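Here is the promised in-class demo. Please do not try to memorize the tokens; focus on the logic of going from shape to residues.
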């Protein structure tokens, strides 16, 4: 097995089967064997003499060698009672109370099973429209989105995956301006990614600065007009402010809809890469390109023969998933089996470029992307045709856009997904994204702060003679190798990271892959904090001109927590303060979380498992505490609540010894039943670690916050500064990365959309 320690931790926490007490029932080999056996058994539905054991072994080898990995629900649920294997679904939302709440109920069932949901709210009548049955007025799409959001909050997907939604509204809906700004308050609609469904006509109106028509969803009649440039500028402004809404080019999704006779594409899955008809689901999987690289004569090449074999097995695997899947609704099973859509994508593209010595932001990288994806797309079609010869075409083939061509088993075969936690399992970069960072520093209690370095970069640095711990710390501090003295110029170019790549090259890379992908491409366009609204606008227009199907952007630091400012208009500060003064003592508002912290993590043995406690501090003192209870034992919600409240108190200025006094000594029966343990409970352990770090700071033995920066070379460091971190992972405190409108922690596998 080639699994990293981090991959094993993620698998133990989120994927392996457990008993009712949270004890593990399998290891990695057991999980892969369970999945392979379950998926291979589908062959018996087509051939009672099929050699399913040989196929099981083939599927097992692809996964255990990290060459191919299906989407997370397949890993979690195949061969287990739930049996729901699909990653994403689209549900219709009709314009009646019954249809709306049917969609809420169906979404809850899907979230419970581990899937994500996409919705178009474009059929709902506008806010203020009359409701004939009651004589009242409609509350509008945004109001009902909040209902869906609340329902999602209540469902935790069996403790393995959080609910994730995509909400789309057509740009010609009368409530479009309200929709664009519906996430202006970051505390609202937190379980949704949102995208505006743009039409070709609207985009041409933007280019010409013209007005466009708004239409009543139920009648199609024109009910007003807006200036296209004004609407587009608001989309840009909100995306610049907090990364949302994204944009989806609806006409392009429908131009590539292989089964228009079944309906119109209204929405996508939560990360935007999978357009689906109402009640459709899709089964995704990704090939790890890094695992099919071979070294010959000191040079790496992509083994296309092996890649082709992996594609063949992956298409077979994903078509089998459709057969054995336990669908959450009969309507979903019916529609999914009509089209038999699969979505084969990739991960590890960044490592492929590193090994081929090709900078991500280069013409050669764009050409490489097209060559690799065209090969995968063509080979996946060949594999699907081979299956059709044995199993027949997808049932909706007659009347489809593919009728008249070669018989094919699956209406679509390729999709570029963000890959998220499955890329952590494979130890690969996510999807087609550049690597987020080459090195970072993780502190562990009683140990030196040692940099964790990308294995291949470390290998090259040692081979070429420029490796040193000090240099790796400098790379971690800078967030990039570009501009770091001591790293040869050649390798500064080759080892590009996300913030080295210009937004233009992010979009050009997305467009290059889109040429040879049936569905769509999940990609985040990274902007530096200093980027302007005009920069965002130019990227959106470039995506439109290059044939992309949608865009998600993220400007560094744009989701920082901010103290809510009460508007005082033009009043003088003293007057505003006097008018705003409450009758009760003034409330304390915690200071914002600092952009840069230093800290320590301590492992504490508890009666219900190992508790990992991280205490972080900045120049003003201790500012936050995070806890992570290994293997999901005990009561993680209570320890998380304790750490959140402690963090809030710390940033509100509360004295550390006072907090320690309140926490130490709290007892828990689970821990007290164990002999020889040094702590009494989770709060007691948190208090003891907090006290230890506080004493280290007071004694001057803790690492100063700016230590990493001080280890950097004294020569000026040029190039982009280190990307800022908006919010640390709520489960382990590590930095989180943005992917397709979602965030992912590559340390523990936590992810959240919205």
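The designed amino acids, position by position:
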């Amino acid at each position: 097995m080639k699994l990293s320690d981090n991959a094993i931790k993620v698998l133990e926490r989120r994927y392996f089967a457990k008993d009712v007490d949270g004890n593990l029932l399998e290891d990695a080999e057991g999980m892969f064997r369970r999945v392979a056996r379950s998926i291979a058994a589908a062959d018996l539905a087509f051939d009672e003499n099929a050699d399913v054991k040989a196929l099981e072994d083939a599927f097992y080898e692809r996964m255990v060698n990290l060459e191919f990995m299906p989407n997370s629900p397949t890993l979690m649920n195949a061969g287990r009672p739930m049996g729901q294997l699909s990653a994403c679904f689209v549900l219709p939302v009709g314009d009646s109370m019954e249809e709306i709440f049917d969609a809420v109920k169906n979404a809850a069932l899907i979230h419970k099973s581990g899937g994500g949901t996409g919705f178009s709210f474009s059929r709902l009548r506008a806010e203020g429209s009359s409701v004939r049955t009651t004589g009242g007025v409609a509350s509008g799409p945004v109001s009902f989105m909040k209902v869906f959001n609340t329902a999602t909050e209540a469902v935790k997907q069996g403790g393995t995956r959080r609910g994730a939604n995509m909400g789309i509204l057509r740009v010609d809906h009368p409530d479009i301006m309200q929709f664009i700004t519906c996430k202006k308050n970051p505390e609202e609609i937190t379980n949704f990614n949102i995208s505006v469904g743009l039409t070709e006509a609207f985009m041409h109106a933007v280019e010409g600065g013209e007005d466009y028509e708004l239409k009543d969803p139920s009648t199609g009649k024109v009910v007003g007009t807006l200036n296209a440039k004004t609407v587009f500028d608001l989309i840009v402004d909100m995306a610049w402010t907090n990364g949302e809404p994204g944009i989806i080019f609806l006409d392009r999704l429908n131009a590539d809809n292989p089964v228009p006779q079944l309906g119109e594409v209204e929405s996508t899955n939560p990360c935007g890469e999978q357009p689906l008809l109402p009640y459709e689901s899709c089964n995704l999987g990704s090939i790890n390109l890094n695992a099919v690289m071979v070294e010959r004569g000191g040079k790496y090449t992509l083994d296309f023969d092996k890649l082709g074999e992996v594609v063949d097995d992956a298409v077979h695997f994903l078509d089998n998933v459709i057969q054995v899947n336990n669908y959450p609704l009969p309507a979903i099973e019916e529609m999914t089996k009509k089209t038999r859509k699969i979505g084969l994508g990739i991960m590890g593209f960044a490592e492929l470029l590193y090994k081929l010595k090709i900078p991500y932001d280069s013409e050669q990288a764009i050409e490489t992307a097209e060559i690799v994806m065209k090969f995968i797309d063509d080979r996946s079609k060949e594999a699907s045709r081979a299956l059709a010869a044995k199993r027949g075409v997808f049932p909706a083939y007659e009347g489809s856009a593919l009728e008249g061509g070669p018989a094919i088993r699956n209406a679509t075969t390729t999709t570029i997904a963000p890959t998220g936690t499955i890329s952590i399992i494979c130890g690969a970069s996510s999807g087609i994204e550049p690597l987020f960072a080459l090195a970072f520093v993780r502190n562990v209690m009683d140990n030196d702060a040692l940099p964790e370095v990308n294995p291949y970069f470390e290998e090259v640095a040692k081979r070429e003679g420029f490796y040193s711990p000090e240099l790796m710390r400098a790379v971690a501090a800078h967030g990039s190798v570009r501009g770091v003295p001591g790293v040869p110029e050649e390798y500064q170019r080759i080892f590009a990271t996300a913030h080295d790549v210009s937004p233009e090259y992010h979009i050009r890379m997305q467009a290059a892959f889109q040429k040879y992908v049936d569905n769509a491409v999940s990609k985040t366009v990274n902007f530096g904090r200093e980027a302007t609204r005009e920069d965002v606008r130019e990227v959106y227009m470039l995506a439109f001109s290059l044939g992309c199907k949608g865009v998600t952007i993220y400007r560094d630091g744009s989701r920082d927590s901010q103290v809510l400012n009460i508007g005082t208009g033009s009043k003088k500060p003293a007057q505003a303060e006097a008018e705003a003064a409450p009758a009760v003592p003034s409330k304390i508002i915690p200071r914002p979380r600092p952009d840069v912290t230093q800290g320590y993590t301590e492992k504490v043995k508890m009666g219900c498992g190992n508790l990992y406690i991280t205490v972080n501090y900045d120049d003003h003192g201790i500012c936050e505490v995070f806890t992570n209870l290994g293997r999901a034992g005990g009561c993680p919600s209570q320890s998380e609540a304790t750490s959140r409240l402690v963090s809030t108190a710390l940033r509100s200025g509360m004295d550390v010894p006072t907090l320690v006094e309140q926490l130490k000594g709290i007892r828990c029966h689970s821990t007290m039943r164990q002999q020889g343990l040094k702590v009494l409970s989770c709060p007691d352990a948190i208090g003891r670690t907090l006290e230890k770090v506080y004493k280290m700071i007071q004694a001057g033995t803790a690492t100063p916050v700016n230590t990493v920066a001080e280890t950097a070379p004294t020569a000026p460091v040029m190039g982009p500064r280190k990307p800022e971190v908006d919010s640390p992972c709520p489960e382990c405190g590590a930095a989180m990365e943005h992917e397709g409108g979602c965030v992912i922690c590559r340390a523990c596998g936590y992810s959240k959309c919205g």
